[in-house]
Write a structure and sequence with these properties.
five-stranded mixed β-sheet, 4 domains, alpha/beta, Glutaredoxin, 20 strands, about 600 residues, globular, single chain, Ubiquitin-like (UB roll), 23 helices, Rossmann fold
Length: about 600
Amino acid sequence: MKKITIGLASCGLAAGAGRIKEVINKEVQDKKLQINIHETGCIGMCYNEPLVEVFTDSGNWLYGNVTEETAKEIIKHHSEEDSPIKEWLVKTEKIKTKDDTFFIKQLKIASRNCGIIDSTNIDDYIAKDGYKSLDKVLKMTPEDVIDEVKRSAIRGRGGGGFPTGIKWESAVKAAVKKNENPILVCNADEGDPGAFMDRNLLESDPHTILEGMIIGAYAINSSEGYIYIRKEYPLALERISTAIQQAKKKGFLGINILNSGFDFEIKIHRGAGAFVCGESTALMASMTGKVGEPKAKYIHNVESGFKGKPTVLNNVETWANIPVIIEKGADWFAKIGSGDVSENPWNGSSGTKVFSLVGKIKRTGLIEVPMGITLREIVYDIGGGIPKDRKFKAIQTGGPSGGCLPESLLDLTVDFDSLTKAGSMMGSGGMIVMDEKTCMVDVAKYFIHFLKGESCGKCTPCREGLISLDKILDRITKGDGKPDDIELMEDICETMKIASLCELGKSAPNPVLSTIKYFRDEYEAHIRDKKCPAGVCKELITYSINEKCTGCTICAKKCPVDAISGKLKEMHFIDPNICIKCGICYEVCKFDAITVE
C-alpha cells in the first residue's frame, strides 16, 4: 500500500468516518506499516459513506459503507497480499462494481477535486494544477479575462441563470462611471432543504472557490471580497478559513499577489441561516447588520450593491467553474451542455451543474452532470431508480420554490429554460425524488409552510399569500377542503407571482401551481372524496390488517400505543380508536399485510 484516503466531509463524519480513521490509524501503527493516511472530502457517493480508498501498486480501490471491522479487514488484505475485497468495492478501474453507473454519465468540473484531494492542504490543490489559472490570468488584461468568461456563456449557478461575464462587465462599467472600486461577494448561503452542493464544495475543495474569486476580482479590479456563509456550516467555515490563511502564506491572496501589483483580500461574513438571505439584496442588507429584507431591483447590485458600491455576487459553484474555464478555454466549456451559445448565452445552458440527489432514490448524493441530460438518466442511470421497486411519481427541482414534475416529463432535458417552461426551475441544484407513496398535496403544504416561515414579511402579496395558501392546504389535508379551494389557490398564486417584491415571493407559488397542474386528481380526491390516494394524510386514511398476516407479532411489538392485538401465528387486528396512524406497522411488516386506505 502507498496511501489511504478517508472521506471526512460532513456526510462522512455523520456516518462515522471519524471513528474509521481512528481504527485505521491504530491498525497501521500496530502493524508498523509505512503508509500515508490522508483526509479527503466527499466524492458524491453519500449513500456509501464512510468511504475509504486504498492506493496500491496494483491500482486504486474505493470501499463503501466501511465499518470498524471491515476497515481492519481492508488493511489486512492490502498489507499482506495486496488483494482487494471485491464485494465491498464501490469504485475501481480494475473490476466492475454495482455502483459503476453512478459515475458514467457524470462530468466533473466544479467538483473535479472533491473526494480526491486533502482539502486542508494547499499543496494537494497546487499538485492538481491549482492556482495555475490565476498565474495565467495575471498575464492577461482584465478585459481579456471578462471576454473569456463571456464566451464560455456560463450562467449563474445560484438559480438566477444570469450570464456571469455580462454581470462582470456591467459592474466594471458602473465602477468606471462612479469612479469607485467594485466589491466581490461569494454567496454561500445555501438554505434549500435537502441541498448541500455548496457545503460540499466548501468542505472538499475550498481553494478552487478562492481561486475563482481572485480571478474575478482581477477581472473587475476589486480589492475587497466577502464570503457570506451560514453559521450552520461549521466544517465549511473551518475549511474555507484555513484555505484563506494558506493562500495568503503562499502569496495567492493579499497584497501584491504573485508580485503582480494586484491586491485582494477576502473576509468571511457569517449568516444567521435565514432562507431569504440567499436573495442578493437581502444578503447584502444582512452584511451591513440590517434585517435580511430584499429590496426592489430598480437599481441592480452591479450598479449599487454592498456599501452602495458596484457589486458582483456569484454563488459557490459559479466561482468553482472559473479556474477551469481559464485553464481549458471558453470554447471548451461552451461546447458542453445544451443549446447554441456561440452568439448569445441566453440561447442555451453551457457547462455542467452540480445537484444534490435525495428523497426516494437508491443512490442519494452529489452528482455533476452536463446540462441537457434528461431527468430519466439522472433518476435511473445515476440514481439507480426507486427503492423497493416502487413506482416513480415526481421529482422536485429548484428547492422550496421549485416545481414538482411528473413521470410524463422524465425525458425533459435539465437546463435553465426547459425546467422553467415546465413550471419548475433550476434553482441552486436540489433534486428530491418522490415515489407512489408520496402525497403531492402534502408535499405542496410542506414547502409552503417552510416558505411562510422564511418569508421576510416585507411585502403583502408574499406574506399574506403564503399564510393563506398554508391554511388552505392544511384544511385540504385534514379533509375540510372546499370545492373552490383549487381555483382560490390559483388566484392567490398568480397575484403573488405578479406583485411580490423579490424572487422568493414570485417563485413561492411554484410548488402549488405545479402540483395542481400535474396532480390535480389528488387535490380533487382530497376535497371531493375525502381520501388521500397515497395514504399519507392521517385524517383521511385508516390502517387495517389483511389476510396476508402470518401472526409474526412484529407489528404489535413495534406499535407505540398498543393498538394492535392478536396471538402468535394468528391474524392480528388494529383498533381504529387507539391507532394514531404513525405508519410504523406498515414499515415493519414484511408480508404486505397492512392495508392503508
